[in-house]
Amino acid sequence: MTTLPKTLLLIMFIASLPLQAESLNGHRVKVKYNREDVSVLTKTITASDDVNPDISDFRVFDFLDMRYSIDFKENIVSIIYTGIHDYYHLQVGKDDRFIFRDVDDTLNDITWVELIWNNSMLAGIRRSDITVLNKNDFMIEVGTAVCSATHDSFQDWFFHADTECHDDDSSTGYLNQIKVRVHFSNENTTNAEARAAAERAEERKRADEERAARVAELRKISDPDFSMDGHTIETRWKESAISTSSHRVVVTASDHVNPDIDDFSTLPNSEKPDSYFWDIDFHEQNIVMSFSGVDDYHINDSSGFNFYGNIGTMPEILGVEVIDTGFLPDGFDPNLVTVDEYNNVYVDLKGANIGYNDIVKIRLFFAKTPELPNTDEDNSNINGFSNVGLITRSFDTHKIKVKSWKVKTGDTKEFLNEVTVNASDEVKFDVEDFTIYTEESSPTANWSINLHEDVIALTNTSNNYMHTTSAGFSFEDVDDTMPDILGVIAFHNYYAPTGFDPSLITFDANHIYVDLKGSKCSLLCHFEESPTRYKNRIILKVIFAVDYPRVDTLLNAIESVNAVNFPSHKESYIHRWETSYKRYYPTSNNYLKVENNTVYMEGDDYEGLVNSGTLDTLYETYNVPATVDTLQSFEGHNIYVNYAFNHLSEDDPKRIKGEKTVTVNSKINPDIRLFKPYPKHDFINWDINFKKDTLDLIYRTNISTTFSSGDNKIGFNFVDVDHTMPDILNVSMADSNYSMPGFDPSLIVFDKDNIFVDLSGVYCTELVNETHNYCPNADSPTGRNNIISLKVEIDLSLGQKRAQVDTKRIDALFDVLETKYSVYFPDHKESYFLEGSTDYVRYYASTDFFLKAKDNKLYFEGGEFNIESDRGALDSMYLLYDIPDFSRIDLLFDAVELKYPSLFPSHQESSVLDGGYYGRYYPTTKNYMGIKDKGSYAWGDSFDGVVYTGTLDSLYKEYNIP
Predict the structure, then answer these.
(1) What is the pLDDT of residues 910-961, one digit of tens each?
(2) What is the mean pLDDT of residues 296-300?
(3) Cys bridge to 227: 284, 321, 368, 913, which one at CB 3.0-4.6 A?
(4) What whole-number distance in Å separates Cα of residue 764 and Cα of residue 247?
(5) Which residues, in sequence order, are CB contacts of 864 under 8 Å at separation 6+?
(6) What phi and psi values does residue 549 have, to the nearest 5 degrees?
(7) Whole-angstrom distance between the N-terminal and C-terminal Cα of the chain?
(8) Contact in structure between 370 and 593 (CB atoms under 8 Å)
(9) Cis peptide before 826 (omega within 30 of 0)
C-alpha cells in the first residue's frame, strides 16, 4: 500500500475546502443595513445561484415603505430598490449603508469590489461609495441614492432633489439597481486560518446536527398542543447566572397579543433606558425576543433573559430549540440557551453584538401528560360525583359574600355595598347590576359577576367608568367551607379594561381583593375581538390549596395492596387545568384518579370508570391520619415571616422591616420568591422555601453584604401564626456545604411556635483575603455560598399520636382478658383514651380496676395492683392470646375489593359476622368475605356455599400485604 507524504495530504486537504471558490454560492452571508452606525435591519442567508432573489423583501423601514430585494449570483451582488409608488421618492440623505459579511470566513479574502454600470443603475451611486472594510466585509453607501415617481430627468433631480425612477429601457423598468462584482484573492490569508475556518465550520455543522437530532427526539416526546396562552410568566433580565434581576415583569401570556411585553428595558435605571429596549412575545410554545432599542451594544459577560412560570401551572420543560429567523445577533451562541430542573429558561447573550431588529426566537418543548382512555360509558351519575370537592376547587354551592370598597385614609378600606350568594355553575351571572359606590354623586357603573368552578368573571355592563384611586371588589368564603386560597391569576387580560393592573390583586386564605385603581372603560373601549365587544371583562382564576400529601399517602397505600394493577410507584399529576388528580401506570395501562372527593380506577383491567369510594372513607380504611399534612411538616400551615431587629423592644416601630404571611405548599418552590427585607430597596432579596421539615433561606442579591455585628440581633422570624402546628422541638443545620460565610447555627433561637434565625456576622463578598471566604461556589446549586438550610424537628400532635395506636387489636385483647380474668374484669366495658394522653384504657368501677395499653405495653392497675403492673409487650400478648392483626386483614380485604369489584363492589367496613368470622358484607351482591382460624372464606349469592380461598399467610404474600 502506497502512503502519500504528509505535505501532499495537507495540500489535498486545503484544496478540498470551499475557501478557494470565487463564488458566493453555498456560503453564509450576512446583510446589514445601518443608519448613522445604528443597525436598522440584519438578515443572514446561505447564498444560492438557484434562488432569485436570495432575499425578496429586505424591508428597511416599514413606515416609509423603504425596501429592497437582494440577489447573489456567483460573485455578483444585485440590490434592487422595490419601494416605488406614486407620490413617494427615495432620497436617503442620511449616512445609510449596506454591509455584507462572509459570516463563517469560508471565502477567499475580499480584495476589491467593482461597481457594474448598467441600464438600471440607481441614481446617485458612485464608485467611491463602495469600500472593502476587511478581508470578510465590504460596504455600499447609499446616502445619496435617489428614486422618485414625480420627476423625469436627471436635471430635475439635480435641481429638485428628485429623479424619475421609471425607465422603459431598464431591464427592471426602473432606475433602481445597484450591481457589484466581488473580487477575491487566490487564497484565504493563511493556511492556518483556512484550517481553523474549516474546523469551525465542521464544529458548527456537528453542533447543528446534534441539536437537530435532539430537537427531533424532543418533538416525539413533547406535547405539541400545549400553549403558554393564559399562563403567568415572570420575565427577568439577569446580569449573571447567580444574580437577582435588575428588571422584572410578570404577565399573563396571550396568543392574541403581540408583543406580551412592550419596551422591556434591560437597564431601566440608566440615563438612556430606551437604548436597551426589547419586545417580548409568548405565543403557543415560542418566546420571541426582539431588540427595539436605539443603540447597538456588545455583551461581554453572562447576561440575558430568565423566564419562569411563577405559579406552577405549566408542565415540565424538556428542552429548548433556537429558531434562526435570519436576524440572530452577531456572536449569539445557541448553546447558552438552557433550562433547569425548576422550569427556569435562561437565554444567555454572552458574546453577542446586539443591534436594531435583532431577533432571538426559541421554542420550548413541554412534557406530555398521559390522557385517560376514551370510554363510551356515561359516568356522570356515579355515587359521590358532584361539582364540589377537595380536588375540584370550585365555588359551586359555597356561600360567597361580595362587597365593594374604597380606600379612606391610608390603606384602610371602607366597605360599601354587599351581597351574599350561593355560587352556582348553573346560572350565567351569580350577581347582576352590582355597583361599587352608594353615593348618587359617584360613578354608578354596573358590574355582573359570575363565579364558575374556580374562576371569577367581572364584566362592566355600563362601559362607562374610571378609577383614579383604589376601589374595587372583595370576595369572602363566608362559612370557611372552601380550601385555603393560594393564588389568584388574571387571565385573558386583553379583554380587561384599559389600565387594569393584576399586581394590585391581594388575597388571604378566605378573601380576594380586586383593586380597579388606574383602570377605565368608556365608549372608546370598544374591542371587536372581545366576547362582549368591549375591553370590559376581568377574568380571575383562583388557585386553592389541596391536601395533596394526604391524597398521595392514600394512593401509595392503594399501590402497595394492588401491585398487579398498579405496578411500581408513580408520581401524581394534574394535567393543565383539569380538576382530577391522577397517576398513570403504563405497564398495565391503568389509572388511579381522584376527583370530587372520590377515588376512581380505570384502564385495561376495569370496565369503564370504577368508583372505589370517597376520600374520607378510604382515609379511614387505609388509616391515613386526617392531619397527615401536618405530620412533622410545615405543609398547609400559615407561617408569618418577618425581617426584624430583635434587639429592639417589641413595641419599637423600627423593629420589623419586611414581612409576609404564606400558606406553605409543597407544589410551590420557593414559597416566597424575592422576599425584600427592606421593602423600599429592590436590590436585596431572599428566596424562602419550606420543604416538609426543612427551611431554606437563599440570598439572591449579587452584591457584597454584611448583615449585622456586635450586639445587634438582626435576622428572620418565623411564626406559626395560627398555632396549628405541633410543637417545635429543635432547629439545626440540614446542610452546611453551601452556607453563607459567618453563619453561626448556635445563635438560632426557638420555642414551640417561633424560630429566630440570627444573621449576626453573616456576609457575602466577592473579595478574597486572609479573613474573608469567597461567596461564589461553582459546586453550589445556586453557584454561590448563599443557602442557609435548616432542619426543624417537629413533634406529633396528640391526635396524630393517638391515630398510631392500634385500638381495634387492643380492644380484641381486652375482650379476651375480660373473659379470662372475670374476677378482675367482671363485665364488658368500652375503651377510651385518658385525657391529654395516648394511654388507652378500660375501667371497671365494681373492682376499681384498669386495663391499660401504654407505650406498646399491657398494664394492670388498681385493686391488688396499687401501681401500674407491667404485664409484657403488646406484641407478646397478641401472640399469647392469638389476637389477629385486624389492620393487616383490612388491607387484604381492600386488595380483594380492588381486584374483584364485581363480587365485592364499593368499600365496606369490617365487623364480627355470624359464626365468629371477622369480615365484610356487600348488600348489593349479597356476598361476604371473612377470616376465621387464620383461613380466608367467601360466601353469598355469587358462590356455591362457603368457599375456602386460602390461608392468611398465603394471601398476604399473593396480595403483597406488608
Answers:
(1) 888 888 899 999 998 999 999 998 899 999 999 999 999 999 999 998 888 8
(2) 83
(3) 284
(4) 22
(5) none
(6) -60, -40
(7) 72
(8) no
(9) no
